[in-house]
Amino acid sequence: xxxxxxxxxxxxxxxxxxxxxxxxxxxxxxxxxxxxxxxxxxxxxxxxxxxxxxxxxxxxxxxxxxxxxxxxxxxxxxxxxxxxxxxxxxxxxxxxxxxxxxxxxxxxxxxxxxxxxxxxxxxxxxxxxxxxxxxxxxxxxxxxxxxxxxxxxxxxxxxxxxxxxxxxxxxxxxxxxxxxxxxxxxxxxxxxxxxxxxxxxxxxxxxxxxxxxxxxxxxxxxxxxxxxxxxxxxxxxxxxxxxxxxxxxxxxxxxxxxxxxxxxxxxxxxxxxxxxxxxxxxxxxxxxxxxxxxxxxxxxxxxxxxxxxxxxxxxxxxxxxxxxxxxxxxxxxxxxxxxxxxxxxxxxxxxxxxxxxxxxxxxxxxxxxxxxxxxxxxxxxxxxxxxxxxxxxxxxxxxxxxxxxxxxxxxxxxxxxxxxxxxxxxxxxxxxxxxxxxxxxxxxxxxxx
Amino acid sequence: xxxxxxxxxxxxxxxxxxxxxxxxxxxxxxxxxxxxxxxxxxxxxxxxxxxxxxxxxxxxxxxxxxxxxxxxxxxxxxxxxxxxxxxxxxxxxxxxxxxxxxxxxxxxxxxxxxxxxxxxxxxxxxxxxxxxxxxxxxxxxxxxxxxxxxxxxxxxxxxxxxxxxxxxxxxxxxxxxxxxxxxxxxxxxxxxxxxxxxxxxxxxxxxxxxxxxxxxxxxxxxxxxxxxxxxxxxxxxxxxxxxxxxxxxxxxxxxxxxxxxxxxxxxxxxxxxxxxxxxxxxxxxxxxxxxxxxxxxxxxxxxxxxxxxxxxxxxxxxxxxxxxxxxxxxxxxxxxxxxxxxxxxxxxxxxxxxxxxxxxxxxxxxxxxxxxxxxxxxxxxxxxxxxxxxxxxxxxxxxxxxxxxxxxxxxxxxxxxxxxxxxxxxxxxxxxxxxxxxxxxxxxxxxxxxxxxxxxxxxxxxxxxxxxxxxxxxx
Lengths: 449, 475
Description:
Number of domains of chain A: 2
Largest sheet of chain A: 11 strands, mixed
Distance between the termini of chain A: 48 Å
Mean pLDDT of chain B: 97
Shape of chain B: globular
Radius of gyration of chain A: 24 Å
Helix content of chain B: 10-25%
Structural class of chain B: alpha+beta
Helix content of chain A: 10-25%
Oligomer: heterodimer
Number of strands of chain A: 18
């Protein structure tokens, strides 16, 4: 896919050419790193079973860092895709940074790779034209109140430096996120994402969503605040994992006691069945980060309920004398995986017996970060269950409880099956991240409003 | 960005527009007395929007050459034609905007400090903040952004708006004996305005490094905020969050129309409430005000070309109109405001808050405190969570201070409160006067599919609410 009338550009060749332009623009004593973040995406927004906003976005950003001794500066610039025009912009950026460096101080925390570790990962699949997919989706909705987004197209990430390292990561993905609404806030949300559009899999998911819509259409039950037994589906666990990823595993946040998991450095623990890993090998994120450090295939974070590792960026490594492990600057997981347990997913409601089956959580935040106490809402398909059977959808509830209880003293079981969930995030660009999570059965969870 | 007339385009369309954005940024920061890497960015691109046969389509590209613009218009037209039969909105019923005008931020051309001067200033605050071994992390930073937006339409519109934003920030983390507390100057990027160096002076940036460090150390030794039903006095740097989450978002017309239900959520507000619904007490007056020069989201025209004016959204507690741009207004057959906005050239405009303000009342800060028998003053938001209908909320602040018998007492840590939007604002008991007002905002309001993070401004005085469910941190 490309903007109509524009010639197809081989993005890998284009990036290699940009890297050569930067290399040739260097003066004696200068080094560089360059990262490309590019995509050509069809976004089709839907509401009420119709198309609300269809469009295409073609964007290419190059982040260029110029280094001389221990001084360095960074300039991120949008590029047109026309190498002639972009060569001039890139040379100007190099010259601009060269003029800035004398005004900067030496950076004692600068750490760059000493080894050249080039890599290439291309997953070049073919997707149908987006308008064809949308026809299929809206036809399958068959007059239901469907609202959602389809995002599809190629995403490219590249890295180059003056030492000759070249890393290339290219993938072509789609991500359809849709909700079927009964009324007001009663809805069923479903995701279908991957590398090749699978019409049969989509139809299966739509059929499942229709079945759950029938359940959500039952008269709702309003529960009083209190402690309830709960089963958290993997899609609900995704929200808890996302909040923990916000500084929880950061080497810098742990060293400065800002991590929500900092107390695990001093004896606090989770249930010994909790194992969390940054599983780059099992995810979709590039195996390299912005400074060019390679990511290990796996970084253990929590094992046997104990904190055993953290994500350490190059700056943090320098600052706290730690070993870097390919973390991004924010030290957030991009491929977090939680090991499964022994409860078959099909038996989850029976094991719950009576309580809340939480399909989705929403808008989580810390209510006491050092205590890892979190609050948030139930959303979409959340049901009251009795004797292992769904009785009624539940009006939204606020929970406020600690992770040390939910995944510690109150954790009864984790499901054997884990779900691989591709990040549907589209802030600034389509995210190349994922999680793999089980469901969790919790003996009690505190609901406050 | 093209300055003059654009080339002619051969587009078979009922209407088209080209929205150019050229945004530049320089970021400076000093963390723990070490200068962080210098970061600059240049982001240029254009969004083409086309109406054809009742359909709508867009295409965004960073190629602003004549060929690039023609390609984008062609792609947008393709989308409009391909989806016209499935379109939710019949674009033949929409106005074809033809705005003409200009806008510029205050102090747009005033000189800013050199890089070395910025670093000197930030080093000074950093050095002052790192005043005690219990201060384990601290940072002083500033972001300087300039942006030029140009909207050209096939109906003859041509608008140029030039902005300059300054976003200074100071934060510290204190830790001792297993307790960690954070303190910042009006929250993370809560200080964000249009203009020049006067912004630093307005917020007392110089000298604030030491002050927030002392606050954080005081919080380390403070007791937890008590639990119970009591009055709360919310400082402006918490009021802006309260306004944002429980008035701003639920009044966005695209949420009411259902566009956001798959992601950001719906609203407890429905179309039939406008003109009759009591949102809050008589003291509640909320305005959409894009005319306050220094406020973050002031502008002359929104991104669909509608002229921006100050209007009441809630007057004396009664809901008057939603926050919806021209397209949403046509869909809902309701009045609205000029708030159709995109966060960049690569995202389409949707209904956003822009500047949403609570108009000041007549009580001095001393009056506000004096009127409280048992309550707590809460300053600076640090935790926010609200349901997808924007009703059940829970918010937390960096610092609390007990109020007993009309007098400020000791500091408390981890102050939190929860409530329900539909009833909370009816307990608005006193509204501070203009002396208690601060013009703040956030550059990070997230919403939309595809997602967008946009700049919004909020001006608010300090306010008192009665009978609020208050609680502290984990025992």
